[in-house]
Automatic annotation (TrEMBL):
It comes from the Bacteria. Keywords: Transferase. This is Glycosyltransferase involved in cell wall bisynthesis. GO terms for molecular function: transferase activity. It comes from Paraburkholderia susongensis.
Length: 396
C-alpha cells in the first residue's frame, strides 16, 4: 500500500532557506516518511533542486508550482500575507489531487502566519508544522533590544495568539528561545505547542588553522576578519569596509558568500582601498571551503542592521571557538552578551567598529573558566542532529 507523503513547501531558496528544506527532507528520510518538496519554477536550476532530481529517490520527490496570476485587482492582492497564503493553498491543492498528504512542513511560516486568524489553514484539515524565524513582537518584554513599536507589537501579539489556535497547526517551532517562554504565559491551553528549535549550522569541526590558511592561500601571520553568508547591505558590510579603510593595523577582510547586486557594485568600487588586500569569494561556498574559512579566521563579523532574529553564522563561530563582533540588537546581541561571545557594537560608527575589532583580536576568546555557563547550555544544542531530532519528534 502506498504511503502518505509529508509535503514541504518553500517558494524561495535564497539565503539559508534551501538548507532548512534540505534538513527537513533528511529528517523525513530518517523518520521513514516519504516526502515531496514543492517550490516555484524559478528554482528549477537551484543546486538543491538539481540534487534531488539527480538522486531520483522514490521517497524524496520535488515538484514545481508557480503562484496563480490574479485575474483582476483585489484588495488581497496587495497584502503579502494573503498572497503567500494563496500560494501555499494552491501548492497543497495541486499536490493532493494525485498524492495523499499526511503532514505539511512549512520551513518559513512567517510568509503567511499573520493571515491565519482571517483565512484559516491553507492546508484544510491536514495537520501541519510551521517554523517561525521573524517573530519579534515580544522582544521588548523579554529584554531583547528591538524597535519599540507598542501598537504594532500589540497587534502582532494578538494575531499570534489567534494564529496558533488555527485548525491543523500541530506545532509552531521557533529559533527564538524566548518565544516559548512568552507563549507559555500569554496563550491558552487550546493553542498549538510553541517549541524551541535550535537554529543549526552544518556539523563541522575546526581544522588546523595553518593548514586551512595554506589551502586558502592566506598569509600565515596576518589577522583575518570573516564576513560570511548571503552578503547584502544588511550585513553591515558597507560600514565595516569604510571603518577598515580608516583603521591603522586593520585586519585583512574575508568576504565569503553570494553577494547581491548592490553589494557587488559596492565591493568592486571599494576593494582597492582596503589594505591588507581582502579575500572576496562571491559564490556558493562548499562545506570544505566553509570549514577552512572558519578555521583560518581570527574573528567573525555579525554587525547586522535591522536583523532581529538568530544567525547560523553565530553558531558556527561558537563551534569553531572564534569571537564574534556583534550588533547589540535582536537575538544576535542577546546570545552574544549572554554567552560572552565577543565585543558588542552599540552602533556602526568607525570608532565603535575599530574598538570592537581591537578587542576581538586581542582579548578574545576568554579562558574557559571565565565563560558563562549559559554558553554551552544554549549553544551546544545548535547541531544538525538536534534540529532533525526535534523535527522528527513533531512528526510522530
Amino acid at each position: 500500500m502506498e504511503q502518505d507523503y509529508v509535503l514541504i513547501v518553500e517558494p524561495n531558496l535564497t539565503g539559508h532557506r534551501w538548507r532548512y528544506v534540505e534538513w527537513s527532507m533528511q529528517a523525513c528520510a530518517q523518520a521513514g516518511y516519504p516526502c515531496l518538496f514543492v517550490t516555484e519554477c524559478a528554482n528549477e536550476d537551484h543546486r538543491l533542486a538539481r540534487q534531488i532530481r539527480a538522486a531520483n529517490l522514490p521517497d524524496q520527490q520535488i515538484a514545481f508550482v508557480d503562484p496563480k496570476e490574479p485575474r483582476r485587482k483585489h484588495i488581497g492582492n496587495s497584502n503579502q500575507y494573503a498572497r503567500f497564503h494563496r500560494y501555499f493553498k494552491r501548492a497543497y491543492s495541486i499536490v493532493r489531487r494525485s498524492q495523499a498528504i499526511r503532514l505539511v512542513i512549512v520551513p518559513y511560516v512567517d510568509y503567511f502566519f499573520y493571515a491565519l486568524p482571517f483565512l484559516g489553514s491553507p492546508f484544510g484539515a491536514t495537520p501541519w508544522i510551521g517554523i517561525t524565524m521573524r517573530a519579534t513582537f515580544h522582544h521588548h518584554q523579554v529584554g531583547i533590544k528591538a524597535p519599540d513599536r507598542p501598537l504594532v507589537n500589540g497587534i502582532k501579539a494578538l494575531l499570534f495568539r489567534r494564529a496558533i489556535r488555527s485548525a491543523g497547526l500541530r506545532t509552531l517551532l521557533t529559533i527564538d528561545p524566548t518565544l516559548p517562554e512568552w507563549a507559555a504565559q500569554h496563550t491558552s491551553r487550546r493553542s498549538a505547542n510553541v517549541t524551541y528549535l535550535a537554529d543549526p549550522f552544518p556539523d563541522e569541526h575546526a581544522e588546523d588553522p595553518r593548514l586551512a590558511r595554506e589551502r586558502l592561500g592566506l598569509d600565515p601571520h596576518q589577522r583575518y576578519l570573516l564576513v560570511y553568508g548571503a552578503i547584502t547591505e544588511r550585513k553591515g558590510i558597507y560600514e565595516l569596509v569604510h571603518a577598515l579603510t580608516r583603521l591603522e593595523h586593520a585586519p585583512a577582510l574575508i568576504v565569503a558568500g553570494e553577494q547581491d547586486a548592490g553589494t557587488r557594485h559596492f565591493m568592486r568600487n571599494h576593494v582597492r582601498s582596503l589594505a591588507p588586500a581582502p579575500l572576496v569569494l562571491d559564490s556558493f561556498i562548499s562545506n570544505e571551503v566553509e570549514r577552512d574559512l572558519f578555521s583560518a579566521c581570527d574573528a567573525v563579523w555579525l554587525g547586522y542592521k535591522g536583523h532581529y532574529g538568530m544567525s547560523g553564522v553565530l553558531v558556527q563561530a561558537y563551534r569553531f571557538g572564534k569571537p564574534v563582533i556583534a550588533t547589540e540588537d535582536g537575538l544576535i546581541g542577546w546570545f552574544s552578551r549572554r554567552c560572552a561571545l565577543g565585543p558588542i557594537l552599540g552602533d556602526l560608527s568607525t570608532a565603535s567598529i575599530g574598538k570592537a575589532i581591537s578587542e576581538a583580536m586581542t582579548s578574545w576568546p576568554h579562558a574557559p573558566d571565565t565563560v558563562p555557563a549559559a554558553r554551552d547550555e544554549l549553544l551546544s544544542r545548535h547541531t544538525l542532529g538536534q534540529f532533525k531530532e526535534t523535527l522528527m519528534q513533531q512528526m510522530v
